Every structure is written in C-alpha cells, then in structure tokens.
C-alpha cells in the first residue's frame, strides 16, 4: 500500500473513532445524571479543536458513514433544546445546559466552515438553533453576562452555515425576513448588551448579503425588512462614539459596512421613506441613515455614480439619491423656516401640534443704557420655540453636506448624470439643485438664502466665548420690525455685555444649532460658482447682505467667515450688478478691542473697517 493510501486509511480510521466517541457520549447522555454533561462537552470540544485545525478533518467527519455524524448532531441539538425548555431549572442545571449549548454550537460552527456539503446538511438544524437564540436573547438571559458566549457561538454557527453559499443564504435570508414580529431573532441579537455578540450578528447579516443585490433589496422591501433596518440603525447609532480599537468600535465598523451595501445598491431613497413617521419632519432613524450616507459620500472619491444611480425594476421609475436629497433638503428647510418665523414673530403661521413647543428665549434681550421697553418686546416675540427645530436643523446640516460633497466631486470629475435614452447628457448635480423648488413655489436658491437669514437672526452668535449682539444688516428689519438705513442704526446705543446666565443660555442655544450657518453658506457658494443665473437670484432675494453678515468668527460654526467670504466671492465674480450692491452698503458696526461688535451711532462716519 502506498504512503498516501495509508495516510487516508489512518485519517478515515481516526475520523470514524471521533464520530463514534461523539455518538457514544450522545447516546448515553442524560442531563439528570451528574457528570454526563461535562463528559459530552469534553468529547465535543476535543473534536471541535481538531476541526478548527484541520480542513481535511471537516471533510472526513462530514462524510463519515460508520457512523454518520448528521443524525448524531441532529439528536444533540434536539436534546439541547429540550433541556432548555424544561420549566424552572436549578441554577446548576441551567449552567450545565449553557455549557452544552455552547459546545454543540462550537462543534457545528467548526464542522461546516468552508465545506459546502456540510453546510447543506447542517441547515436542517437551523430551526432548533433559532429557538435557542430566541431563548438566550430573552430579557432575563441578557441580564446574565454568562449567557453572552453562548449567544455569540449560536450566531457564529448560523453565520458559518451560509458563508459563501448562495443557495443557503437565499434560503435563510428569505426566512428571516418573513418571520412573525416576535420571532425576529436578528432584532433581538442586535439589541444584545455584548458587543462581540453584536459583531457576530452583523457578520451573519453581511454573509447573507454578500454578492447579492436581490438579498440587499429584500432588507428594505421584505415584510420584516424595515423592522430589521430600524433595529440595525438603532444599534449602529449607539456605537457612533465608540473607540475605534474597542469591541464596540469593531461592531460599528461591521454595522456601517452593512448600511454601505444599502447605499451602494441605490436603496437609500426607498429606505428613507420607509423610516418616515406621519406628520414628523424627521425621525431619529432617518437622521442615523443620513449620518451613514454623509460619511460614505465623504469617504468615496467618486460618490456621484451612487448619487445618480438606482435599482432598476421592470415598470419602476428611476429613484435617484440626488433627487431624494434635494427633495429632503427643501422639506427640512421649509419646516425650519416656518418654525423660525414663528419664533421670531415674523408673519402669521399655524402653530405646530401641542407638545412640540415650549416657552423660552433663544437670544438674550438687547440691553441699553436707557433700559428701553422695546427690548422686552423683542424677547417676548422669541417665545414659541418648536422643540423639533434642533433635530430638523441637525438633519438639514447632514443633507447639506451630502449635497455639497456630490456637487463638488461631480465638478472635479466633470461628470454628469447618465445619458438618457435619446443620448442626451442629463443635468449635473448643481443644475438639478438649482432647478428645484418647494411645494409653495420657492426656488432652491431663494429657500437657501431665506433659511440662512432666519437662522442668523435666531441663533446667538458666540465669538471667542462671548455673546455678540449682531447689528441689523442694511436694508433689513430688526426684531422690532424697523427698517434700517445704510450706514446707520437709527441711534441705537451701544450694548452692554450679556450677563453670565444669559451667556450660558446663548451658548447652549448656539450649540444646538452648530454648523448650520457654515454648511448652508458653503453650499450657496458652490451653487453660485460661475453661474450668473444663481448670482442674480441671490441678489434679487436679498442674499448679498445676508452672506456679508456671515463673514465673522463664530465658535459654533468653524470656518464660517472663510466659507462666507468664498461664497461672497463666487456671488460677485464677474457680476457688476452684485458688485454695485456691495459698494452701496456701508458698515453698521465695528469690532472693539475686546472682540465685541459695536454698532455705529447716527452720524458716525462709516470709514472704519468691517471685519
């Protein structure tokens, strides 16, 4: 006999011996007999070690016939589940059952790894494994850290069963996305307090989605898909601040990878709609999705193909991410404008539903040496604050950043959207945005300028840790509704420094609306670049003074001044009419030695530099 044949014979002999040892231990197993569990676990763990180290052992044990391992494994899973279903087990017995469950799961995990035939045979035990996962993700089980290794091992066993096996992944994924609500083990696993269990579950999902656009679409479109997406987004959101090298950080990276598959499949518009709640301008899950999308677009060198592509189905209209973002931006900006106008007392507007407003003042009242009565009037007008406004503005910042990234990268690449059926090039991202309008007919550019104006009026400006009382821009109305004249402020006296409580309150308000002004004015600058029509529209809607008033340092809008100056440059570039508007504007204030903006009194020459 050749040396190779002798090795095969010895391998088969050793394999049969291992399977026979497992069978004998399983046949004689009685959970009520002390020591039986530990003996079975010892035999299984010994075999698991062999399987992990030797790929040939996995083939040999999976194909063994004298005896066959698969009836034995099925019996072990059935016995394990039966033991867990017994009512009120003693603590010692419960601990032994957990030990057994982890050992059977580890053996299964190692046996099926990278062996398709073993995976197919092990799938028959999926229902038993799923029921055990359900048991170990109950509230009482998740309160005991000793259960975490068991849950983790069960999840890894399921993951290895479908890894790189398209047929089994299709089978498992379609099953898990159509289960009744109370049987959705994925949502229960996502909620585990153990980061390593969450990581294992995310890997299971990634393995199911691997190299299959159809399975990714099921995640959004299947009966239970949106519910699983909600749980996934919740868990990813809870991991945002995790240290990159920690277990929580690793879990975040894998969860983020799942959501990137959704982005790449062009399914964000559809998922965003499914996450909506009636009569709510934005939901926490939509905000989390926007955060992931913003991060993805920033990390991609060429995000515009994703922005202008969508899944194509027979009879379905194209759904472009860019269109969805533009529509979402206008919806959020319109809502923000309404809330800001109510807070500032501008015009008449229907108040929001009960419970969404609170009486408070965002800007500290103006203080004058004369203690005039109008300061109290201004403060009283800032009383109807929509409590959803900070969340709306947070989402508005994210959408603005996404649109800016898409526009800039498209300009850098000189790309356009895919050609139409007639062979004509579709509009660029900038063109799509500029041509959009709200449901009330307000154009995108006009909506952007108006939102900037209201935000700047409403949110306190903090410069070098101090509250800066902004003077009214020339040609605009102040909070009392008075029109100012160019170069003067109608004799307003200089303001005193705000008190410490007012300063802290103003800082809290500014922090709640951080980055809004910076990102909005940056987008305006991008749209106005080399576009005469946009430049003219900015002038016609009074946007030039608005942008000029943003050329300042703002602690909660880093680089606001630089972005505003660049936007102003793009608005004026080659446009004599816009340049004439700037020439006609005289400064209304100056920075004193304490970096506090002081308004000029009537009659003071306007020759000092406005910084």
Structure description:
By secondary structure, this protein is an all-alpha fold. It contains 29 helices and six strands. It is 61% helix and 3% strand. The protein is elongated and about 95 Å long. It has helices spanning 3-27, 36-53, 55-63, 69-85, 91-112, 116-122, 126-136, 139-142, 148-162, 166-176, 185-190, 195-209, 213-221, 225-238, 247-264, 268-274, 284-299, 304-307, 321-344, 374-381, 389-413, 429-435, 444-458, 500-512, 516-528, 532-540, 543-548, 560-572, 576-584; strands at 357-359, 384-386, 461-463, 466-468, 589-591, 597-599. It has a two-stranded antiparallel ribbon with strand order 1-2. The chain folds into two domains: 1-162, no CATH class; 325-599, no CATH class.
Features:
mainly alpha, 2 domains, 3% strand, elongated, cell cycle, cell division
Radius of gyration: 32 Å
| Domain count | 2
Overall geometric form = elongated
What order do the strands of the largest sheet run in, or round the barrel if closed?
Answer: 1-2
Helix content range of the residues, please?
55-70%
What would you call the structural class? mainly alpha
Characterize the quaternary organization of these chains. Answer: single chain
How many DSSP H or I helices? 29
Average per-residue pLDDT, rounded, comes to 84
Proportion of β residues?
A: under 5%
Major pleated sheet:
2 strands, antiparallel
> Unreliable segments (pLDDT under 50, ≥5 consecutive)?
1-8, 310-318, 348-381, 477-496, 602-611
Distance between the termini: 94 Å
The total beta strand count reads 6
């Amino acid at each position: 006999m050749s040396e190779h044949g002798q090795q095969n014979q010895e391998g088969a002999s050793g394999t049969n011996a291992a399977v026979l040892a497992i069978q004998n231990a399983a046949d004689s197993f009685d959970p009520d007999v002390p020591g039986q569990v530990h003996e079975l676990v010892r035999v299984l763990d010994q075999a698991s070690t062999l399987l992990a180290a030797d790929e040939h052992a996995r083939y040999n044990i999976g194909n063994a016939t004298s005896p066959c391992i698969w009836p034995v494994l099925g019996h072990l899973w059935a016995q394990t589940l039966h033991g867990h279903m017994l009512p009120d087990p003693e603590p010692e017995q419960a601990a032994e059952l957990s030990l057994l469950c982890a050992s059977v799961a580890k053996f299964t995990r190692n046996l099926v790894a990278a062996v398709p035939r073993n995976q197919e045979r092990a799938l028959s035990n999926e229902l038993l494994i799923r029921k055990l996962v359900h048991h170990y993700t109950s509230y009482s089980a998740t309160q005991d850290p000793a259960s975490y290794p068991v849950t983790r091992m069960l999840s890894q066993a399921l993951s290895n069963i479908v890894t790189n096996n398209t047929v089994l992944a299709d089978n498992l994924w379609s099953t898990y996305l159509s289960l009744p609500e109370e049987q959705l083990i994925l949502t229960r696993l996502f909620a585990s307090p153990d980061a390593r269990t969450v990581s294992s579950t995310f890997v299971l999902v990634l393995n199911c989605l691997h190299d299959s656009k159809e399975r990714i679409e099921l995640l959004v479109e299947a009966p239970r898909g949106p519910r699983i997406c909600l749980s996934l987004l919740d868990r990813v959101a809870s991991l945002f601040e995790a240290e990159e090298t920690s277990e929580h950080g690793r879990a975040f990276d894998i969860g983020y990878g799942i959501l990137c598959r959704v982005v790449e499949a062009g399914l964000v518009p559809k998922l965003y709609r499914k996450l909506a709640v009636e009569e709510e301008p934005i939901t926490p899950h939509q905000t989390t999705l926007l955060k992931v999308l913003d991060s993805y677009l920033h990390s991609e060198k060429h995000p515009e193909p994703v922005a202008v592509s969508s899944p194509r189905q027979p009879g379905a209209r194209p759904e472009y991410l860019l269109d969805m973002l533009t529509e979402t931006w206008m919806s959020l900006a319109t809502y923000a404008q309404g809330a800001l106008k109510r807070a500032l007392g501008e015009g008449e507007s229907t108040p929001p539903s009960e419970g969404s407003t609170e009486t408070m003042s965002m800007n500290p009242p103006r203080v004058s040496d004369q203690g005039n009565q109008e300061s109290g009037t201004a403060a009283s007008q800032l009383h109807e604050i929509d409590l959803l406004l900070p969340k709306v503005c947070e989402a508005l910042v994210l959408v603005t950043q996404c649109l800016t990234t898409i526009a800039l990268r498209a300009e850098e690449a000189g790309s356009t959207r895919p050609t139409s059926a007639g062979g004509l090039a579709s509009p660029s991202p900038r063109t799509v945005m500029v041509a959009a309008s709200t449901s009330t007919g307000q154009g995108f550019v006009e909506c952007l300028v108006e939102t900037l104006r209201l935000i700047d009026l409403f949110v306190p400006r903090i410069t070098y840790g101090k509250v800066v009382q902004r003077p009214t821009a020339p040609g605009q109305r102040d909070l009392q509704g008075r029109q100012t004249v160019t170069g003067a402020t109608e004799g307003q006296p200089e303001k005193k420094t705000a008190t410490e409580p007012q300063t802290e309150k103003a800082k809290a308000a500014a922090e709640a609306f951080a980055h809004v002004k910076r990102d909005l004015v940056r987008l305006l600058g991008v749209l106005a670049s080399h576009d005469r029509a946009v430049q003219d529209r900015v002038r016609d809607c009074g946007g030039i003074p608005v942008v000029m008033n943003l050329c300042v340092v703002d602690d909660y809008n880093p680089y606001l001044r630089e972005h505003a100056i660049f936007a102003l440059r793009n608005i004026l570039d080659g446009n004599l009419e816009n340049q004439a508007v700037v020439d006609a504007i005289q400064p209304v204030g100056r920075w004193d030695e304490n970096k506090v903006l002081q308004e000029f009194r009537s009659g003071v020459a306007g020759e000092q530099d406005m910084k």
